[in-house]
C-alpha cells in the first residue's frame, strides 16, 4: 500500500473501488478518474483555477429549476450532448439522422389535423412543411406521431414567454395515415440565442463564442416498432449553420425552403423522414 502522490494518483484512487461494485460503474468511474487526473496534470491546474471551477459548477447548479437545466446546456455547448447522441444513434445509410433534443420540447402538445396551422400568434413568414415518413425500403409508415416545435418570429419558444405568446404556439402533433404523409403550416424559423444569462453564457463569452443556433424546426418522430427519431430540419443559408452553439447541424438535416408564388404560405419546406426498425 502506498499513500497518495502526484505520480500514483490515478491508481491510488481507482484502487479503492470495491470488488462488489457494479462492473459498468467501475469501468466508467475508473476512466473518469484517469481522464480527470490526466487533464489536471496536462494543464498544471492552479488552486485558483480549481476554486473558480467549483464556483462555476455551483452557480450552474444554483440556476437550475423546473424550467431551466443549466447542466444540460453546459453539456450541449461542450459538444457532449451531440457526442453521446452520435454514439447512441448510429444509423444505417439512408436513415434520418438524430440531433440534439434541446430543452424546449413540451409533452402532450395538441394533436392536430394534417395541414393545420400551428402558428397561433400570427407572426412570421408562413411556411408549409410537408413530406412522408418512410421505412428503409421506402414504404410509407402509418400511425407515426410527428411532434413538431419551433421558435416564433422573434426567436422565442412559447414556454420562454408565458403570458406573451399563446400556449402551444408553434407546436403540435400529427399522426400519419396509410400514405405516411404529414403536412402542417408554421413559420420559417429564425436563428436565436440559447439562454445565455447564466454561467454557460458567461463561459461562451469568455471563450469568444456566440450563443446562437441556426434556424431550425424540431421533430420528434415516433412509431411502434421503430427507433425514436429526435431531429431538426435546418434552414439552408443560415449564417450560423457552421457555428451552431450546440453543434447540432448535419448536412443531411438542411432542408429546402422554397418560395411559393401565389400559395397559401410564403414558403414550402419538403422533407421525408426515414425510420429504422427497433
Ligand atoms: C434548441 O434547439 O431548442 C436548443 C438546443 C440546445 C440548447 C438550447 C436550445
Ligand atoms: Fe430549438
TrEMBL record:
- What UniProt keywords apply to this chain's record, in alphabetical order? Dioxygenase, Iron, Metal-binding, Oxidoreductase
Q: Which GO terms describe its biological process?
A: catechol-containing compound metabolic process
What residue stretches are annotated with the Intradiol ring-cleavage dioxygenases domain?
A: 129-157
Q: Name one Pfam family in it.
A: Dioxygenase_N
User: Which residue windows are transmembrane per the record?
Assistant: none
Any one GO MF term held by the record is:
catechol 1,2-dioxygenase activity
Task: Please list the cofactors this protein needs.
Answer: Fe(3+)
**Stored InterPro entries:** 1_2-HQD/HQD, Catechol_dOase_N, Intradiol_dOase_C, Intradiol_dOase_core, Intradiol_RC_Dioxygenase
Q: Which family does it belong to?
A: Belongs to the intradiol ring-cleavage dioxygenase family.
Specify the protein name: 6-chlorohydroxyquinol-1,2-dioxygenase
What organism does this protein naturally occur in?
Paracoccus limosus
Taxonomic lineage is: Bacteria, Pseudomonadati, Pseudomonadota, Alphaproteobacteria, Rhodobacterales
Amino acid at each position: 500500500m502506498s499513500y497518495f502522490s502526484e505520480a500514483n494518483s490515478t491508481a491510488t484512487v481507482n484502487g479503492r473501488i470495491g470488488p462488489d461494485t457494479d462492473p459498468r460503474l467501475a469501468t466508467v468511474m475508473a476512466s473518469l478518474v484517469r481522464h480527470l487526473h490526466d487533464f489536471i496534470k496536462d494543464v498544471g491546474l492552479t488552486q485558483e483555477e480549481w476554486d473558480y471551477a467549483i464556483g462555476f459548477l455551483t452557480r450552474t447548479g444554483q440556476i437550475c429549476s423546473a424550467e431551466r437545466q443549466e447542466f444540460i446546456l453546459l453539456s450541449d455547448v461542450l459538444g457532449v450532448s451531440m457526442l453521446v447522441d452520435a454514439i447512441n444513434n448510429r444509423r444505417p445509410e439512408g436513415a434520418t439522422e438524430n440531433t440534439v433534443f434541446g430543452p424546449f420540447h413540451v409533452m402532450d402538445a395538441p394533436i392536430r389535423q394534417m395541414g393545420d396551422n400551428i402558428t397561433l400568434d400570427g407572426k412570421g413568414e408562413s411556411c408549409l412543411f410537408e413530406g412522408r415518413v418512410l421505412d428503409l425500403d421506402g414504404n410509407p409508415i402509418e400511425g407515426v406521431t410527428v411532434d413538431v416545435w419551433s421558435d416564433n418570429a422573434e426567436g422565442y419558444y412559447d414556454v420562454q414567454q408565458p403570458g406573451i405568446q399563446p400556449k402551444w404556439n408553434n407546436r403540435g402533433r400529427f399522426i400519419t395515415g396509410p400514405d405516411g404523409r404529414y403536412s402542417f403550416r408554421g413559420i420559417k424559423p429564425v436563428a436565436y440565442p440559447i439562454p445565455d444569462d447564466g454561467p454557460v453564457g458567461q463561459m461562451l463569452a469568455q471563450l469568444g463564442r456566440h450563443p446562437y443556433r441556426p434556424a431550425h424546426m424540431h421533430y420528434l418522430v415516433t412509431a411502434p416498432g421503430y427507433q425514436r427519431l429526435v431531429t431538426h430540419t435546418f434552414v439552408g443559408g443560415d449564417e450560423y449553420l457552421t457555428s451552431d452553439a450546440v453543434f447540432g447541424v448535419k448536412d443531411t438535416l438542411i432542408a429546402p425552403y422554397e418560395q411559393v408564388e401565389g400559395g397559401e404560405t410564403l414558403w414550402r419546406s419538403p422533407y421525408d423522414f426515414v425510420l429504422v426498425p427497433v
